Amino acid sequence: MHVRDDSNAEVVERDLETAMPPGNRPRRESRWDKTLQVRLPVEAWEAVVAEAEKRGLPVSTLAGELLIAQLATLDSSTPGVIARIRADLDTLSSRVE
Predict the structure, then answer these.
(1) Rounded distance, CA 51 to CA 39, Å?
(2) Residues 75 and 83: beta-carbon distance below 8 Å
(3) 83 Cβ neighbours under 8 A, 6+ residues apart
(4) Residue 47 DSSP SS3
(5) Which of 32, 49, 50, 67 is least surrounded, with the fewest CB atoms within 10 Å of its CB?
(6) CA pair distance 75, 68, nearest whole angstrom
């Protein structure tokens, strides 16, 4: 990280020393990360929040996973179907454990 002056350096150092709150995961940076902002009806928002809490995930993580899973269903190629089946098997195995 490029720091321009000493005052910014202090802030950066202090932030690096701050403990991450329990339940948070370190963010993996990726050049593919993009932000999507959507509007949801209150009922849909509450359902997403409840499911995220049930799974112990941040709401944005769950929403992203659900969106990616839905996009995968659009792929009817053989590799796409196999990927979907594998994902479904992973989901089922996590429920059994």
Answers:
(1) 18
(2) yes
(3) 72, 75
(4) helix
(5) 32
(6) 11
User: How many other CB atoms are there within 10 angstroms of residue 83's CB atom?
Assistant: 13
Helix, coil or strand: residue 50: helix
Q: Give dist(CA 59, CA 48) in Å, integer.
A: 7
Q: Give the 3-state secondary structure percentages of the chain, helix then strand then coil, rounded to 5.
A: 60, 0, 40
Question: Radius of gyration of the chain from Cα atoms?
Answer: 19
Q: Are the beta carbons of 43 and 51 closer than 8 angstroms?
A: no
Structural domain spans, the chain: 36-97
pLDDT band (50, 70, 90) for residue 29: low
**Quick check: 51 and 62 in contact, CB under 8 A?**
yes
| Six-digit token string for 43 | 């009922």
- pTM to 2 decimal places: 0.52
